Amino acid sequence: MDKQVSRYADEAMFRAVPLAYEGDEVRPRVAVVSMTEDPLRVAAAVNAMYKGQPLVPGMIDKATALAFAKDAQRSKIKAPLEWIQVALLFEGVSRAFTHQLVRQRTATYAQESLRFAVKDNARYEVVMPPSIAGLPGDSPARAIWEQAVAKVTWSYNALVEHGIPAEDARGLLPTNIATRVHYRTNLRDLIEHSGLRLCSQAQHEWKQVWIEIVRAILAYGPEHERWQQREIVKLFRPICYQTGKCEFMGAADRWCVIRDRVEAHHRKGEPPEEWHDINPHEPLHPEAARRMALCIRTA
C-alpha cells in the first residue's frame, strides 16, 4: 500500500483527484461518456413503426431524421426518444447541485464518494454562488464566506490527519463542496429535465451546467454526423416553451422575469414560436427568479 493511502485511518480512504487549486475558479465541466450512435436515425426508425414501417436506422435518410426531430416537438408520443441513451460526466459541480440532480428518478448515477475520497484540497473546491462571487474582493459578505470556508475545510483536514475516517469528517464539509458524478439517462427524460432546469425557477448552477451539456453534445460524434446533435440540443427549452404556458403558478413558486409575457401569449392562444417579445435566454440570468429587497439598517 502506498504512503498516500496508508497515512489515512481507513485503508479504504483514497485521495480525491483535485478539481481546483488556489487561484483557480471552480466551474462546471461536462463530457459525453457515450451516446447512441446515429441518434435521430434510431429514433426515426422506431417512430416509423407507428405507420407500420419496420425500418432500421440504416434505412433512414437525413431528411426523414430531420422531419422526425421537428415532429417530436409537436407530438405527445415521446417513446422513440427513449431509444436515445446519453451518458454524461459532470465535474466541478456542487453537492447542492447533485442533491437536486438525483431527484430525476429515471436516471442512473455514480458519484464521487466522500466516504472514501478524501478532499484534502477542499479549501479551493467550494463553489462560490454568483451573489457572492460578484462582490468586490474587500466586501464584508465575501470575507465572511471565505473565512468560513477556510475554517471548516481546515478542520476537516485536521480531523483526517488525526485519524478520523473521512466518512465521519465529511460531516463538516460545506454543501457547496465540488464533486463529480456520472449521469446516464435517455433523451426523453433529458428533454423533460431541461424544461425544469432551464426555467428561471432553477438555481443558477443548473444553467451553467446546461450550457456545458449543450457544448459537450454538439462536440460529440463524427463531425459529418453532428447535424443530429445540432437538432437534438434544439429540444432543450424552458418548460413554458414546451407547453406554451407557465407551469410554476403555485403559492410556493418564485417570481419569474418572463411569466407575465408568457401568460399574456397563452391567453391569446399564441404558441412559443410567436413569442417575439421574449428572449428565451432571459431565464438563464442569475437573478431571473429573484426580487431582491433592499435592506436598510437603521441606527
Order of helices and strands: HEEHHEHEEHHHEHHHHH
Give the DSSP E fraction (strand runs of 2 or more residues). 5-15%
Between the first and last Cα atoms, what is the distance in angstroms?
62 Å
Approximate shape:
globular
Number of helices: 12
Q: Which spans have pLDDT < 50 for at least 5 consecutive residues?
A: 293-299
- What is the typical, i.e. mean, pLDDT? 91
By CATH reckoning, the class of the largest domain would read Alpha Beta
Helix-strand makeup class: alpha+beta
The strand line-up of the biggest sheet is 2-3-6-4
- How many strands, which pairing sense, and closed or not: the largest β-sheet? 4 strands, antiparallel
C-alpha-based Rg, rounded: 23 Å
Looking at the structure, the CATH topology of the largest domain is: Gyrase A, domain 2
Task: Tell me the number of strands.
Answer: 6
What is the annotated CATH architecture of the largest domain? 2-Layer Sandwich
Summarize the amount of helix as a percent range.
25-40%
Give an overview in words.
This protein has 299 residues and is α+β, with helices and mostly antiparallel strands. It has 2 domains: 12-36 and 84-237, Gyrase A, domain 2 (2-Layer Sandwich); 242-299, no CATH class. Helix content is 37%, strand content 11%. It contains 12 helices and 6 strands. The protein has helices spanning 3-6, 39-48, 62-72, 95-101, 130-133, 140-161, 166-169, 187-197, 204-218, 227-233, 239-243, 259-268; strands at 14-15, 29-35, 85-94, 108-111, 117-118, 178-186. It has a 4-stranded antiparallel β-sheet. A two-stranded parallel sheet has the order 1-5. Helix 2 crosses helix 3 (62-72). The radius of gyration is 23 Å and the shape is globular. The chain starts with a helix and ends in a 31-residue tail after the last helix. The model is unreliable at 293-299 (pLDDT under 50).
